[in-house]
Specification:
- By secondary structure, the protein is α+β, with helices and mostly antiparallel strands.
- It is about 25% helix and about 35% strand.
- It has five helices and nine strands.
- Strands 1, 2, 3, 4, 5, 6, 7, 8 and 9 form a nine-stranded antiparallel beta sheet that branches.
Length: about 210
């Protein structure tokens, strides 16, 4: 057994206090996200974990990339028939998580999910590099495949088929918008007395702000 008892650090880079936060959590997210994108030690500030609950009741977590955010919610893209897509279609809920260790910050977002309009998925799909478009068309995401060569052969065939043509967006690939109803901002502090500020959506209209014990 490897003993990890001494693997710890002191958090002291910032603080999160009520008198300085935004009243709308999307505006607070925007401020933190901009700081993360401007930090040279954070390579992908838009990388986020997304957790969904599967049929056996166990959550499954994976990393995806945030592609847009508005006052309405957070947008990402995936295969609708993947494990995450199937879970979302069944529960219409997910938890998003951002972790920026260089800033000693994390954000936890509980949200209701729905598909975005097809024309928006079309627009983003065709803005991607052609290789990424072909990859989305090739991969039966989350399904069992015989080997790596299976994918590579399919890719070669599609590259020939669409060499001088536009790649159509697969019907089972597109975007979701995660509409938050709870957002927690966590700021590391000394002595493990971390700051935790939570925004809770009340009656679908107003945000209630509370502080949680660390």
């Amino acid at each position: 057994m490897e003993n990890l008892h001494d693997k710890r650090k002191v958090y002291e880079k910032s603080q999160l206090i009520e008198s300085e936060i935004k009243q709308n959590p999307i505006e607070q997210f925007r401020d933190w996200f901009l700081e993360a994108t401007e930090n040279p030690n954070i390579s992908e500030a838009n990388a986020m974990a997304i957790s969904t609950v599967e049929d056996d009741g166990c959550p499954r977590t994976r990393m995806v990339l945030l592609k847009a955010y508005t006052y309405e919610g957070f947008i990402f893209y995936t295969n609708y028939k993947s494990k995450k897509g199937k879970s979302i279609e069944k529960t219409h809920k997910a938890c998003l998580h951002f972790f920026w260790p260089n800033l000693e910050r994390q954000i936890i977002i509980k949200a209701d999910l729905e598909r975005i309009a097809e024309n928006l998925s079309d627009g983003y799909f065709h803005s991607r590099p052609k290789g990424s478009q072909l990859g989305a068309a090739v991969s039966p995401q989350s399904e069992e495949i015989p080997n790596r060569e299976f994918l590579e052969e399919k890719l070669k065939n599609l590259e020939k088929e669409y060499e001088n043509k536009e790649v159509p967006r697969p019907e089972n690939w597109g975007g979701y918008i995660a509409k938050p109803y709870e957002i927690e901002f966590w700021q590391g502090r000394p002595n493990r007395l971390h700051d935790r500020i939570v925004y809770e959506l009340i009656d679908g209209l107003d945000w209630k702000i509370v502080r949680l014990a660390p």
